[in-house]
Fold SDR family oxidoreductase.
Amino acid sequence: MRGLTGRIALVTGAGAGVGEAVARRLAEEGARVVLADRDGDAAAQVAATLPNGAVGVACDVASPDDVTAAVEAAAALGEGTIHIVVCIAGNSRPAMLKNLDEETFASVVDVHLGGTYRTVRSALAHLPDDGTGRIITTTSAAGQSGTIGQANYAAAKAGIIGFTKSCAKELARRSITANAVAPLAATAMTEKVRTDEKLAKLTLARIPLGRFAEPSEVAGTFAFLASDDAAYMTGQVLAVDGGTVI
Ligand SMILES: NC(=O)c1ccc[n+]([C@@H]2O[C@H](COP(=O)([O-])OP(=O)(O)OC[C@H]3O[C@@H](n4cnc5c(N)ncnc54)[C@H](O)[C@@H]3O)[C@@H](O)[C@H]2O)c1
């Protein structure tokens, strides 16, 4: 894979988990990374450990003003250009359908799908038209196959696939690619299904490779999609999930 030297990347949800690993990998490949996270301290702490002058900013992707400010911070570093936009920020608020109230449904959709929409839309004017512009979003096995107890999350993640494919079609004329990654990794988000004995047994039985990846193991796919080697790939969903969705 060719490197990312000279590229500017904005990564949301980069304060922990998959986002942190992706920000680290992009920086190691040579990119200058702006790490945006609701937890601004975490973003700044991770940024301080990365090469190439990475910067951490506080940004709740549910807030249009926060997203605009994070995008402007990245654009300022890149003298107006942001090459790589990676939308990873997300949370989960599980509830069985009968208990899934309006607010719990809407808030998860707003963070995942709304956050992806507003980050991409806000960065659009800064993406270059020379074949280096990249949009990378994060979906999930839940968005591809559905899940029990998280219809809000699954709906948002399925929506992200439709949004990403639409970006791919609409922005192809500008040579900007848009792809989604469906990861599975040992992070805070998956702590319960990894540590609760009964849930862990059920979950591992659904993963052909029989284990959760470390976040660093899924980060390479994001870096590949950001690279020149993926310039002719757009509108795709790449699952890095141990074979969960086949
Ligand atoms: N871990 C997995 O197995 C898995 C599987 C499928 C999809 N995903 C997706 O990968 C992404 C990262 O998940 P993770 O497992 O690393 O979770 P995580 O909880 O470890 O990290 C999520 C990060 O996003 C930040 N965040 C949460 N809400 C935010 C908001 N409104 N604005 C900005 N930042 C916010 C958190 O502060 C945290 O730093 C999510 O979109 C998640 O849905 C993860």
The chain has a mean pLDDT of 97.
